[in-house]
């Protein structure tokens, strides 16, 4: 999902995650209505937003253990430690999140988002502040999740980061869809159309 600032992209993700309620209509996720009581549906969702959703007074490891317990995962300590190793943060397990650089904090937030193996992954600018190694690690992880049947919704300003991962491209302008179509062709052929749709 792409579009200019203020188009409603982040709001869309918050609606899909069940953090906001629509003024009208119904949101369905994985074929189920995302109503207030649909806890089993929400448990299938992982959200990366602009806020890290991490606790500053818990260590890096404690944050993931806490998340694992929230989702009722077996052996939360082992699950959390494994996720930190996968994110390249194993050596920082005992530090507080506020001591991390912006890029490492993004890695930790992504590890928290993916920890419970959600079936729907909602990502708001996931590559922000990641170094090339972190970006490549994220692409590989998302390719793996997609191959296992997970759905991923990206909100991004940088299509080149996700173009090859995408199966559809949607353009949102002032809260309305200007396009929602299968990805086809190259990014270079799509960008002129995007600029025309958004007046950029």
Number of strands: 7
Instruction: Return the string of H and E elements.
Output: HEEHEHHHEHEEEH
Report the mean per-residue pLDDT as an integer: 92
Low-pLDDT stretches are: none
**Please, how many helices?**
7
- Major sheet characteristics: 3 strands, parallel
Strand order of the largest sheet: 3-4-5
Q: What is the CA-CA span between the terminal residues?
A: 16 Å
Helix percent reads 25-40%
Question: What's the Cα radius of gyration?
Answer: 17 Å
Structural class: alpha/beta
Summarize the structure.
The chain has seven helices and seven strands.
Features:
two-stranded antiparallel sheet; 200 residues; three-stranded parallel beta sheet; 7 strands; 7 helices; 38% helix; alpha/beta
Note down, in words, how this protein is organized.
A hairpin with a 2-residue loop joins strand 6 and strand 7. A three-stranded parallel β-sheet has the order 3-4-5, with helices on both faces. A two-stranded antiparallel ribbon has the order 1-2. Strands 6-7 form a two-stranded antiparallel sheet. The model has no long low-confidence stretch (mean pLDDT 92). Helix 3 (60-70) packs across helix 4 (76-86). It has helices spanning 9-16, 39-42, 60-70, 76-86, 102-114, 132-147, 187-198; strands at residues 28-29, 32-33, 45-48, 120-124, 151-155, 168-173, 176-182. The two termini are 16 Å apart. By secondary structure, it is an alpha/beta fold.
